[in-house]
Amino acid sequence: MADPEPAARPAPDTNADPAPGPRSGSGSGSGSGSNKGPDTDTGAGSDAGSGPPSGPGPLTVPSMSAGPDFVLRPWEMSDLPLIREAARDPYIPLITTVPAPYSDQAAEAFVREQWERAATGTGYPFAIVRSRDRRPVGAIGLWLRDLPEGRASIGYWMVASGRGLGVARAALRTVTGWALRDLGIPRLQLFVEPWNAASARIAEDVGYRREGLLRGWQQVGDERRDMAVYALLNSDGPGDGRAVATD
């Protein structure tokens, strides 16, 4: 996995930095325990298609097709089974804010945190969902805390039942194309532990280039870990088609 959450940690077989998601939409209550999911507008609020968001402020998390088999959408309270599975993974809770041990109360708080992240302009958190049965299998986020400097980061994680299917690659390609082309972000970066060859391969397949090793970059569990940094510039071009928004 790649560094999945802002100022957080990276996850296995996923290369994302899922930012806390907004209530995604004007009608969903992120802080009130509402079980409504965020809306599925195809744009990033008023900024969609017109350059990156100009600063902290509410963001609308869009729904996007990630190829023929998967969809990226805002987090919903119906995603608790995904959080339960992720909480059992030996690595995901170490590098994300996924609660472990699992409880429904903690999982609901996790979903509300994603809504709040979007509501405060921290970034765009997505659940990765299988199209045929609407089952969520992972998460990916585009984090904007460094946007004033012209860069953003991506992080993702996948549960065991979603690995080996090309899901992470499709999700990363979709978010990358959207961020570079539709939002016009100059630089995207992600962070991968040196041992995580699967995540490194996914990043390179999408067009990211390894730029170096950051020693002791991040706290993972009870120790500081090195991270390899991968980046893709808007001027490089992601080498794939535009993300397709869905309604």
Automatic annotation (TrEMBL):
The keyword Lipid biosynthesis does not apply. Keywords: Transferase. Residues 24-34 have a biased composition (Gly residues). InterPro entries: Acyl_CoA_acyltransferase, GNAT_dom, Ribosomal_N-acetyltransferase. Residues 70-236 form the N-acetyltransferase domain. Residues 1-13, 40-51 have a biased composition (Low complexity). Residues 1-65 are annotated as: Disordered. The keyword Transferase applies. Its EC number is 2.-.-.-. One of its GO terms (molecular function) is transferase activity. It comes from the Bacteria. Pfam families: Acetyltransf_3. This is GNAT family protein. It comes from Streptomyces stephensoniae.
